[in-house]
Structures are given as structure tokens and as C-alpha cells.
Amino acid sequence: MEEYKFLFKIVLVGNAGVGKTCLVRRFTQGLFPPGQGATIGVDFMIKTVEVEGDKIKLQIWDTAGQERFRSITQSYYRSAHALILVYDISCQPTFDCLPDWLREIHEYANTKVLKILVGNKTDRDDREIPTQIGEEFAKQHDMYFLETSAKEAENVERLFYEIAAELIDQARSKDNSSSMNKNLSDSVGLSPQGSKPPQVSCCSGLSNQSSSQTGNT
Ligand SMILES: Nc1nc2c(ncn2[C@@H]2O[C@H](COP(=O)(O)OP(=O)(O)OP(=O)(O)O)[C@@H](O)[C@H]2O)c(=O)[nH]1
């Protein structure tokens, strides 16, 4: 039987097509799936990582971004230790929806949940949301911030490892959680990376409907 020191539940949310499934696949399987279908309901994967010599089991819940699954996905917020809210840096509407996602989070998640804002698809050259805008939004809403590319494996390992490290810290010193430094570029290292120049606007990457993937609750 597998031994582990901590088990943490991490839930990914955000609009359809922002790359939640690809981020999870990149991290758990080391691949960027071709023709990724839209998630149906909720999908679930496990990965055990080692942080400072301790084995940490991460239970990662990948929720469907599509509105019609909202009532199913909401029920997964409650027991999450960390919530990763993802938008697509090349698609403004996915960023504009963030306040709606935050309302959901406040309504359904534990108040102490660790919140991480992730701008995905940094490999794209048609960026619409500058890094600084994402960073400021995160700061305003008491979230960590990181930009990633599931496609190019940029900052994906870092995202999950730093969440694990932060959750370990919290678990070890519960009383100190309120003094946690959420200043984005500091201590825990979940910090923004350099931005790429914004180019032509386009949201073509949105919502891939071919359903090759089944929900796995
Ligand atoms: N260029 C680029 N495309 C990406 C990246 N991550 C995901 N995509 C593409 O974006 C599309 C949607 O990716 P998914 O991972 O299925 O998105 P999702 O957020 O899980 O979508 P739902 O399951 O519908 O909520 C797919 O065509 C992916 O190939 C990335 O880092 N860079």
C-alpha cells in the first residue's frame, strides 16, 4: 500500500476551453493531449509528489467549464484544499468571467481554501490579457498568480509543487495561515513570468466539443 504524509485535494475551475484538462494531463501524465474533448462533469486524477522528503498525494479534480455542468461541479468545491481558477491569456471573455467564478467560489468553497489564478496558453502569440492585469486581479482578490502553458509545459510542475508546498506549510502551522504572505512575487514563489507582446485578438481556442473524454466522478 502506498504511504503518504499528506493528501490534498485540488480543484480546477474556469471557462470551457481554457486548458484545465491539458494542465492536469501535462502534470499527471507529462503529455499534451491532441484533440482534447470537453470535460463532462468532473474528472479526477491522482499524483504523488515528493516535497522536502515527504510523499504528498494530490487528488486533482478537473471540472467541466460548460455552464450546464455547473451544479455538478459546485459540489466539488467544498472539500477542496486549493482551487485553481484558470483563464486563457489569449481570450478576453475567459478573463471577464473571473468575477463570476469568484462568486461561485465564495459561495461553495471553504473560506480558507488556497486560491490560485492561472493564465494559461502563454505559448500563444495572440495574447489579449497582459501579465500585469492578471497579476493585479489576483492581488485584489487575495489569490496567488502564475502564468502557464500546458502545451509547452511551462510552469505546470511549478504550479502543483508550489501548491503542495504551501498546503504543507498551512497544515503544519494552521495558526499561522492568516499571516501567510500572499504578496505574489514573494516567498512561496508563485509569481508572474515575463509577458509576451500582445498581438491580434482571437478566441479560436475556445471550447472543443468533440467528446472523447468521459467524466469520471
Ligand atoms: N496553445 C495552447 N493551447 C492549449 C493549451 N492548453 C490547452 N490548449 C488547447 O485548448 C483547448 C481546450 O483545452 P482543454 O484542456 O480541453 O480545456 P478545458 O478548460 O479542460 O475545457 P472544458 O473541459 O470544456 O472545461 C484544446 O484545444 C487544447 O489543445 C496551451 O497551453 N496552449
From TrEMBL:
Compositional bias annotation for Polar residues: 176-198
Region named Disordered: 172-217
Record's keyword annotation contains Nucleotide-binding: yes
Bias (Low complexity): 201-217
Keywords assigned: GTP-binding, Nucleotide-binding
Coiled coil: none
The protein, known as: Ras-related protein Rab-30
Gene that specifies this protein: LOC101893052
